[in-house]
Specification:
By secondary structure, this protein is an alpha+beta fold. The chain contains seven helices and seven strands.
Length: 211
């Protein structure tokens, strides 16, 4: 009887050990599965991040700012954008239409005016001037001409600095009238970019405020 009891006790102990072993194995397997899942998630997140970085890099390489930097007729504008800390804005996401003054357009400003605006203490004024040349939304020349026609040759747009410019058509060309009453001509249209479009103009547009 004692032997039988001992044998049964040993069997129970063996079963407990076996059960414990099974539990440990299951826990180990579950831990392995969880680790694999976490690694897959990590790889997936890494791929998403890599893809996002590649997309951003491609967008910036074809952005309005990059297009301007690659155009020798817009080198003065590029310098002004850099001085005003607006380059990143025109590299980033969003859609903009930019009426970009050429180097010749900037040369028509009163002597010393641009140099004065480029000083660090006048950054806010320079930003105001440059934002006056930017409109939210991507509008190709064909779209602008259609809007001008619909508006009986007087199409008003609100710029990034919340002031107005007025577009009209003359001899097949788009004309841009600023708040001071001066009119610039679009000399080259539809420079396509990843975040908008650029139309070059032959004069610097002046907002209503004093600069």
């Amino acid at each position: 009887m004692k032997l039988k009891t001992i044998v049964m006790s040993m069997a129970v102990v063996a079963m407990l050990f076996a059960s414990c072993d099974d539990t440990k194995k299951k826990e180990a397997e579950q831990a392995k599965v969880e680790q694999m899942r976490m690694e897959r998630e990590k790889d997936s997140l890494l791929k998403v991040e890599t893809d996002n970085q590649a997309r951003i890099a491609e967008m910036e390489a074809n952005s309005i700012a990059a297009k301007a930097m690659g155009n020798e007729d817009l080198s003065t504008l590029v310098s002004a954008l850099q001085a005003a800390d607006l380059t990143q804005t025109l590299k980033g996401e969003g859609e903009y239409t930019v009426f970009a003054p050429t180097n010749d357009a900037f040369s028509k400003l009163p002597k010393g005016k641009l140099d004065e605006l480029m000083k660090p203490e006048n950054k806010a004024k320079l930003q105001e001037l440059l934002k006056y040349h930017v409109v939210s939304g991507k509008m190709a020349s064909a779209d602008l001409l259609a809007k001008i026609k619909e508006s009986k040759n007087k199409y008003e747009l609100t710029t990034m600095d919340t002031e107005k410019i007025t577009l009209s058509e003359k001899g097949g060309k788009i004309m841009v009238k600023d708040a001071k009453g001066n009119t610039a001509t679009v000399t080259a249209a539809d420079m396509d970019a990843s975040n908008g479009v650029v139309h070059t103009v032959d004069k610097v547009l002046m907002p209503a405020s004093k600069l």
